[in-house]
Amino acid sequence: MQKLKHFFIYFLLFLFGLTFVRSLITYPIISIACLSFIIWFGYKFEISKFGIFIFLMALILRIAVVILFDTPIISDYSVMFNTAKEIVSGNLTAAANSEYMLRWGYQMGYTLFMSLLLFICNNVLFIKIVNCIFTSLIVLLIYLITKEITNKKVARIISLIYMVFPFPLLFNTVLSNQHISSFFFLLAIYIFISKKFKQININLRYLLIGVCLAVGNIIRPEAIIFIMSILLFLILTTKKEDVVKMGKNFGILILVYLIITTTSSFIVTKTGISPSGFKNTEPLWKFTVGLNPETKGDYNAQLSEKFNEESNEEHLKRLYNYTIGSLDKLPSLFMYKAQHFWIESDLGWSLFYLSGKSINVLNQKIKADSLIALFYSFNQLIIYIIFIFAIIAIILKRKNMSRTQLFFLIILLVYFGVYLLIESTPRYAYTAQIFLFLMSMYTVEYLLNCYQKRK
What we know:
Blueprint: H1 2-21, H2 29-44, H3 50-68, H4 75-88, H5 99-103, H6 108-120, H7 124-149, H8 152-164, H9 166-170, H10 178-193, H11 202-219, H12 223-237, H13 243-270, H14 285-290, H15 301-309, H16 312-322, H17 330-342, H18 348-351, E1 358-361, E2 364-367, H19 368-396, H20 403-421, H21 430-454
Antiparallel strand pairs: 1-2
Helix pairs in contact: 1-17, 1-20, 2-8, 2-19, 3-7, 3-8, 4-6, 7-8, 7-10, 8-21, 10-11, 11-12, 11-13, 12-13, 12-20, 17-20, 19-21, 20-21
């Protein structure tokens, strides 16, 4: 057990090291000054009911962002949004008549959710505000988890930094299914590790975890990462005499998860809304993209056209050529993908429409490119600091790692492994970055303790 734990630690450090060694960047003073102020504020000021404060501040900031930045709806998001509008207008066969929705049935969950919101208020801003509520709850959960594991000062610093982290903040302008799914996945993890929830009936706790993972997966199919992480954690930490009990608890989680996801997909299929239900009819596509050495594991329109014209046998042959047939190319591919996924910014989805334009700020015209550059700089600064702090946290605690930190380590390892194999782009790191923040809290706690001792 101890040897295996050390293997996980050093293996993750090795993988993260590969992603970091190739990247160097210089940050303007203003970005460092902003981050320093946030850290100072979190350390210095004690606010009563900080959980409520951080939620409201995060919500106000996010709503302001979606009002100020009118990001056009493009790409997959446009297809899902237009399908949702068609459903609201009474065209219940809109998804059934869409080749995209038939192929990628797993997009129906968020599409139906948007149609429900549009039925309540037929305005895209309303959808974005609802997303803002969920992303503000993510900030709150980060605070609650960090406070329970470390202390209030660390929790304030970590949650405040995440609150202003440009990528998830600006990404609220995009109709992404990652907002709500990330909240439910993080809520499931909070229920799993929180001491408060351990006071309730254990069967009920695992049932709630299963419900959260199922809802999150219906919105965006990433629950497998957390199911694998929970299972691996339980296997590594459960005593022999508790194996049967552990199996029963995990069985409850899986049963609830399967009942909800399967039943929901069945209902959507039988009602004719989507013949594909919530299924992915092209399971090899993500691997084909992710293992393509020419496109470096990212989406490519030409590859998509070829894939659509090929048979399943041709798909398997292509995958063989990308893997067994090109073993010498995999190391450089994996190194590029790791760096691309973990430590590169992806603000373009929110700010692309401003490129080359001028905007009015307090009746003063400024070049939008300058503002974009500042956002990118601040975003990269936070990514690198949190990334380094997460690595330091693993090193600091490698000999006496707590169960919770081991669990975060496993989640990061599973994320790392999965996105080496499938399509990966920086925006897909949305949920994974939350756990980098949670891992980094151990370093922040260590630094604060050192500072207080010197005082």
